[in-house]
Batch of 2 targets.
Target 1
Amino acid sequence: MLYFLIAGGLILGILIFVHELGHFLAAKLGGVGVEKFSLGFPPKLVGKKWGETEYVISAVPLGGYVKLVGQEPQEEEGKEIDPQKSYSEKSVPIRLQVILAGPLFNLFFAAIILTVVHMVGMPVLTTKIGTVKENSPAMKAGLQPGDKVVGIGEISIQEWDEMTKIIYQSPGEALDIAIQRKAQQLSFRISPEAKLVPNLFGEEKRVGLIGIAPAGEYIHKRYNPLVATYEGFVKTGQYIRVTFLIIVKIFQGIIPAKTIGGPIAIFQMAGETAKQGWLNLVFFVALLSVNLGILNLLPIPILDGGHIFFLLIEGICGKPVSIKKQEMAQRVGILLLIFLMLFVFINDILRLWGNANN
């Protein structure tokens, strides 16, 4: 349990720091004063003031915040505020820059992590066959454990994912599959069986299968910095797309709401992935960073997306939404967040209870 808490706490702390650092640097770049930079929510545990900013570590490690000069004008009546450093006096583009920077820093952080992984060496599953299913097309054709697929038709194959992509897309089609068996190179004609299998979202999809499983043999594929950067950003784009799809399918009811996890699930998954090795943990951190960035962009009052929504209205209409309407929207946003947090905490507890009784 302590292992889970340490791993989860470190990961959440890093991702929150990256998010708030984005707001902080964008504010400084836009000439906005920063009164406080807090990791966690009050009460304050420790703090130190440098220049105009107090840097704080607080007791509730479920988020963080950057308090900007002039961000809440109604709370600062009677204070002497330098209008040149006031957030509320800045143009809409500068305020958008400050708000957007937090989520964008999380997305950029994920891309940097994945870029480094591609430079250090991505583990790639080879095409060596570990098992052949009884009465499958592969067994009937004569494939054996230990065979290594080297080509399909005219296409040279080196990675398991390359092979499965072609097989999945070819149900019922005859494929010429070349394999390496010790010193021999053999060729087999195999027609993948059409099967309905669940995808990432639990939806059934028709694919081709030949009945083989990998041997679990990996090679490390290293990329030069330019290609690694490209691959890192492409992978981040894939994570962003999947995150949006998951959100949409939760609202559609395709993904059950009971599968949504909260901080307890994050701490538990962080501990488990840390046990599986540094690479699994790195991918988990990148995925979590993307999730944090995307969720903060949702147009819910009190989240960054809610602030962006009001700023866009101001930019279109030429005047800000009234303070009263913003306060009402923020109250609704707080209630929604409280409800969501209670919901995911209950999900986490029920999941832990279920695991304990299995």
Target 2
Amino acid sequence: MTQADCKLPLPLDGIRVLDATHIVAGPFCSMILADMGADVIKIERPRTGDLARARGPFIKSDDGRETSSRFLGVNRNKKSVSIDLGNPRCKEAFEELVRNSDVLVDNWGSGAFNRLGLGYEHLRKINSGLVYASITGYGDSKGLTGPYSARPANNLAIQAMSGWMEITGDPDGPPQSVGDNIGDSIPGVWTALGIVLALETRRQTGQGQYVDMAMYECMVAHIESNMNFFQATGSNPARSIDRFATAGITFEAKDGYVVLAGLRTEARMRDLWTLIGREDLLEGDTRYLAGPGMDGQFYYEHIIPTIEVWSSQLGKFEVAAKLTEIGFSMGVTQTMADLDVCPQLNARQMFIETGDTLGGKFRGVKTPARLTACIDSPTETPPQLGEHNEEILCSLGGMTSEEVAVLTAEGVL
């Protein structure tokens, strides 16, 4: 018996997901499901497909072909069916796919599938066990609409609306966004969780349900410490120097920056000044030894510049290592190049290699849930547009090969 024979199956093995999503939030969600063993069928528009396919940066082959790295990054382990849901025969085939599936995910905006005549109330009559998850900006279910429900949304709009931008950035500057599309990926994670929870309820009752996911609410849920501050004090947490200094201080090394985020007790500050050869600061102005409640302005005008005289002569990883040794919790502000070769991430096998659809390899970031008793997640190459039309539509969609050929010629597949 091999080691693989001793492993458990992935938790979503046997679950079929129709992934009618595009860009990031929906594809990120369905990628998690696919990595956990689900059979994910990506539903795309003919000719254009997922809008992310046309968005760079692109990976190019020697013969001039190109593929979107943005698409590759969130669409591994899926199959692609390109189908025009406005076409009557294609709509019938889609309904047949729903009949033979467990989950449908869409993120085309409030009411989009209802306008096609394919909303949850219609689809539940075809498959009462269907778990239908819809990702919208502000939520979209009966009895739970608000003044923003019909608004479109994207990463930056949601970062702003959910309070993230107001607490991010220089105290003297405007609000800033976080530097990646967390307004999409965080809702993607919550939607994957919502789907798994709904599948568990279906296991118990036999009934599916509509899973109403609002990007806005997903992001608000992750600002809990600042909301707790407001509930306790009645005041808005501000982007202030004092608050930044309390949370942690960032200073420069020879090749980048490090963050000192550990508790700064007097004992640790004494160890710090000893480490960098500034024993003279152990006596005199007690602000050099201050812990909680420190003067933020003094930190920025005196403590940080003093540390940087030492740290600017050393590499950022060496600085972090030396301060970790004396008890501080340290971080290095890593670039993408740093992360790509990070010994910790590589030791933990945090990267996954698939094909890039051009004959080469694409290195993506692994789903971080470590189910140590299960087999490894698959590493299937993201699909070409419509790559699995005949395979899926003829086996699950009720079409014949002849119909697929005719509808392809008509441009609706």
